[in-house]
Specification:
The protein is mostly helical. The chain has 21 helices and seven strands. The chain is globular and about 80 Å long. It binds flavin-adenine dinucleotide, ligand DLZ and iron/sulfur cluster.
Length: 514
C-alpha cells in the first residue's frame, strides 16, 4: 500500500517508529523545511542552521538506507510554508493511500497531525515515539493518585525498568542518588575536556548562508558554528564525552567558570533531542564505563539520572498537564524581560557570561540556565510565558516538550510547585559558591544595600517578602523566612527599597526584546 511517512526535524532517527511500520519499496519519506517551524518563535540562528543541516544530512542517510525521500527546501519557490500545506502538496504528488507518522513532540504540531485524516480523506496512523522510555499511558499510570509528583520516585521506576545501575532489585552502591557529592566548585584546568568542533561541510555552509540571509533579525550569531550535523559526528562527540568528561561530570555538574563554556558537560542534548543519538544507549555505555572502573559512581549515576530521570519526567509532565500548562502563572508575574537578555550587555558578570555564551553558541549548561538567567528572571518577577519564549528561542536543544516544564515549571515556579517543591531562587551567595563570577564583577556579592551591592541579594529577600502569603508556609523556605523576619524593621525596609530602586531603574533603562 502506497505510504507517505513525514519525518519532522526532531525525528532524525533511522529506526523511528513510523519507518519501522512502513515498507521501503512502497513508501515515500517526506521531509519539509517550512517557514512556520523556523519562525513560530525567533529561534537562535545556530538552532535553525543546526536543524536544517541535520535534516539535509539525514535525508541522505535515509536514501542510503534504501528509502525514497522527497525533500522540500525552505527556498523552494512553491514551498507552502507549513507542515499541513506541504502534506497537501505531497498528497497531490504521490497519491498515497495512507500516512504513517511518529507522534510530534509538542501540542501545537500534534493538533496539526490530528487534522490530516479529515482534511485529506486518507488514513493517518500516528505511532508512539518509542525513543522515550515511558509512554504517555505509563507516565500517567505512575502519576495517577499520587498526592505529590516527585522526579526521584519516577526515576527509581525507570532504573528498575531498564536495570540501569541495578544489582538485582537494589541500586548499585546502596543508594539511588549521589547528588550530594556533585556540588563541587571547579578551578580552571588546562586538561579540561574540550568538545569537538566540527568544520561545516559544503551542505552546512549552504545552510549557514541561507540562515544568515533569511533570519538576520533572529538572536545569536552564526560565527564559529561547530555543531555536529550527522549521526556519525554526534557519535564522535558522545565517545569523547564518555572517555574524557564523564569521569568528572558528577563532581563539577553545578560548577561555573568565567570563559569556560562547557566544563565537564556532554553537549549532547541537541543530538539526543533531534534523534541523532539514542539516550538509553548512552546510559548503557556510561554504565559500562563505571563497571569497567573508569568512571566513579557519583558521575555515572548523576548522568543517568539526568536522562532517564529528569528528561523523561519533563516529557511526562508536559503531556500530562496539557496545552494550557504554558499559561500558568502562580506568582502572577508580569515584568518584561530586560532587552539585554538578547545582547548580554549588562554589568552583572554572571549574566553577561551566561547570556554571552548563549548568544555565541546557543548553549549554556544547566546551572547557568537555572541559577543565573532563570533565577534572575524569577527574582525580578518576569512573566513566565515570556521567559519560556526566550528559552525556546535561544537554546539549540529547545523543543517545547522539554523546555517548557524546565522553564515555566522548574525555573519559574509558574505551576505553583508541581515540578519543584520550592522556587529555585538564591541570593548572590550561591553563584559565588559555585563559580568564579563574583570575583570578576563590579558588584560586591557580600553587600545587600548600597551602590555596589550585588543585585541578586536585595532581589532575593524582596522576592520572599513579596510572596510571603503564597510561599510563607512552604516547609523548605522556613529557614530563609525565619532569617528575614528576625531582621530589624529598618534593615528589611532598606533591603526592599534597594530592590525597588533596582527594578525601577531596570524597567526604565532596558526596553525588551519582545
Ligand atoms: P549535560 O549536563 O551533559 O546533561 C546530560 C544530559 O541530561 C543532557 O544532554 C540532557 O539530555 C539531560 N538533561 C539534563 N538535565 C535535564 C533536564 N532538566 N531536563 C531534560 N533533560 C535533561 N534541556 C533540553 O534538552 N532542552 C531544553 O530546552 C532545556 N531547557 C532548559 C531550560 C531551563 C530553564 C533549565 C533550567 C534547563 C533546561 N534544560 C533543557 C535542561 C539542561 O539545562 C540541558 O539539558 C543541558 O544543559 C544540556 O546540555 P548537555 O547536553 O551538556 O547536558
Ligand atoms: C525547530 C524546527 C525548525 C527551526 N525548522 C524545522 C523545519 O523547517 N522542518 C521541520 O520538520 N522541523 C523543524 N523544526 C523542528 C520542529 O519544530 C519539530 O519537529 C516540531 O516541533 C515537533 O513537534
Ligand atoms: Fe552575579 Fe552578583 Fe556575583 Fe556579580 S556579584 S557575578 S551580579 S552574583
Amino acid at each position: 500500500m502506497k505510504t507517505l511517512v513525514p519525518v519532522l526535524g526532531d525525528q532524525l532517527s533511522l529506526s523511528l517508529s513510523s519507518l519501522r511500520a512502513a515498507d521501503p519499496s512502497e513508501t515515500v519519506v517526506l521531509m519539509m523545511e517550512v517557514a512556520e517551524e523556523t519562525t513560530y518563535v525567533r529561534h537562535h540562528k545556530q538552532k535553525i542552521a543546526y536543524i536544517l543541516s541535520a535534516m539535509r544530512h539525514h535525508a541522505e542517510a535515509l536514501a542510503k538506507a534504501g528509502w525514497t525521500v522527497d525533500y522540500v527546501r525552505l527556498d523552494d519557490p512553491d514551498n507552502a510554508g507549513s507542515f499541513t500545506g506541504e502534506i497537501a502538496r505531497a498528497v497531490q504528488r504521490h497519491a498515497p493511500e495512507r500516512i504513517v507518522v511518529t507522534e510530534a513532540g509538542e501540542w501545537r504540531v500534534m493538533a496539526m497531525i490530528e487534522g490530516w485524516e479529515t482534511l485529506f480523506g486518507i488514513s493517518v496512523d500516528i505511532r508512539a515515539d518509542d525513543r522515550f522510555l515511558a509512554s504517555h499511558a505509563e507516565f500517567d499510570a505512575w502519576a495517577e493518585g499520587r498526592k505529590e509528583l516527585r522526579m526521584e520516585f519516577f526515576y527509581r521506576e525507570m532504573r528498575r525498568k531498564t536495570a540501569l545501575l541495578m544489582d538485582g532489585n537494589k541500586p548499585v552502591g546502596g543508594r539511588w542518588n549521589f547528588d550530594k557529592e556533585n556540588r563541587k566548585p571547579a578551578k580552571t584546568d588546562l586538561f579540561m575536556p574540550r568538545p569537538h568542533a566540527f568544520e561545516p561541510d559544503a551542505m552546512t555552509a549552504e545552510v549557514l548562508a541561507l540562515v544568515e540571509a533569511r533570519f538576520a533579525d533572529h538572536p545569536g550569531s552564526l560565527e564559529g558554528f561547530a555543531y555536529a550535523v550527522t549521526a556519525n559526528d554526534a557519535e564522535k562527540q558522545a565517545a569523547y564525552f564518555l572517555a574524557k568528561a564523564l569521569p568528572q561530570f558528577g563532581d563539577y555538574e553545578d560548577a561555573m567558570l568565567t570563559g569556560e563554556r562547557f566544563l565537564w558537560h556532554s553537549i549532547l542534548s541537541p543530538y539526543i533531542n533531534s534523534g541523532l543519538l539514542d539516550p538509553v544507549d548512552l546510559c548503557r555505555r556510561a554504565e559500562a564505563e563505571y563497571r569497567a572502573g573508569r568512571v566513579p559512581l557519583n558521575s555515572v549515576e548523576g548522568y543517568i539520572r539526568q536522562i532517564i530521570g529528569w528528561r523523561e519526567y519533563m516529557r511526562g509532565i508536559y503531556w500530562r498537564e496539557g496545552p494550557d500548562y504554558v499559561s500558568r502563572n502562580f506568582l502572577r508575574h508580569t515584568r518584561k524581560l530586560p532587552g539585554w537578555y538578547w545582547t548580554g550587555d549588562t554589568d552583572m558578570h554572571c549574566l553577561k557570561e551566561a547570556i554571552g555564551q548563549t548568544l555565541a553558541t546557543a548553549h549554556a549548561h544547566h546551572i547557568q540556565r537555572l541559577m543565573v538567567t532563570g533565577n534572575f528572571a524569577l527574582l525580578i518577577g518576569a512573566d513566565p510565558a515570556e521567559v519560556h519564549r526566550w528559552y525556546l528561542e535561544v537554546y539549540i536543544d529547545a523543543y517545547e516538550w522539554v523546555e517548557l516544564p524546565n522553564t515555566l515549571g522548574m525555573s519559574q515556579f509558574g505551576d505553583g510547585g508541581l515540578l519543584g517543591s520550592k522556587p529555585y531562587v538564591s541570593s548572590g551567595a550561591y553563584i559565588d559558591r559555585m563559580s568564579d563570577y563574583c570575583s570578576h564583577c563590579r558588584y560586591d556579592v557580600k553587600q545587600r544595600v548600597g551602590a555596589d551591592a550585588c543585585p541578586y541579594n536585595a532581589l532575593y529577600w524582596d522576592f520572599l517578602a513579596r510572596h510571603e502569603k503564597k510561599l510563607g508556609d512552604n516547609p523548605r523556605l522556613r529557614m530563609p523566612y525565619n532569617t528575614w523576619n528576625k531582621q530589624s524593621a529598618q534593615s528589611r525596609k532598606e533591603t526592599r527599597i534597594q530592590a525597588e530602586t533596582f527594578l525601577r531603574a531596570l524597567d526604565k533603562s532596558t526596553g525588551t526584546g519582545y
